[in-house]
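Before we proceed, please read the two lines closing this message. Report back on whether the structure tokens fit the sequence:
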Amino acid sequence: MLDGEGPANVKLADRTRERNESVMRLHILPTFGAGSVADVTTARVRGWRGKLLAAGLGEPTVVKAYQLLRALMNTAVDDELIRRNPCRIKGADRYDVPERPVLTVAEVFAVADSMAPRYRLLVLLAAFTTLRFGELAALRRRDIDLEGLTVTVRRAQAELQDGRLFDKAPKSAAGVRSVSFPAELLDAVSHHLEQFAAPGREGHVFVGPQGGQLRRSNFRDDWVKARKAAGVTAELHCHDLRHTGNTLASTAGASTRELMTRMGHSSSRAALIYQHMTSDRDRAIADRLGVMIRGGGGVASASPGEDAEGT
């Protein structure tokens, strides 16, 4: 566990195992649980997959189930229980991700201003630093540099099916990063730290309504209301703020490598993982985003209304 945070016995593998066990129990064993692996034919796999899709199961889940079944059959091939893997359906191991909505700067601020005040900054940082929800939920006060205008990602929050929260290390070295935010957000960041963040250097920047750790369930209802109040598409997910921020940064002149660094993405070429852009260039990207905020009607003040939530 990075920084020794979270329960010592909780690992990222726990969450992956839970997900795989759920897919196995719900979508694979009912069809293939009885009999021998030799009874699993390509025709049966094709029929099984077709029934899952016809039943309305989401395509990502169907793809996951197919990938898991194929992995199991690969093991059977390795163990010489069968001669070849019956999971040979072209294209069944992937799906096309539909194009996600991209907000304008004005729409980003409209959604942020419609949120409960304690969540306003989360929306702004999601859009203008492209941090993931889990990365934002795991931020501590010490991760915010008000002088350098940066936010540093050291960990990301994850939630197990039993509701336990823990902080995990980023998936790759590229995930640990400092991202510059526009100077136009400084007042909003300072205001949030004064009014809503937990105390102490290790206090969470974003907390739930009762002061506990932020959960997606805490956030979701308010997000849906704010999205409706702002008049943006009902298809907008919170994660789309990251897509919006990536698009805006690209418009601001960020190169592909700079976007990858800013978003915490790894390259297929290992050398690029360690090839970081300079802080001056990252600062320039954030400054260009600030120009877009001012030109797009964004409110740069700490809060659009009262100083504290509910007052």
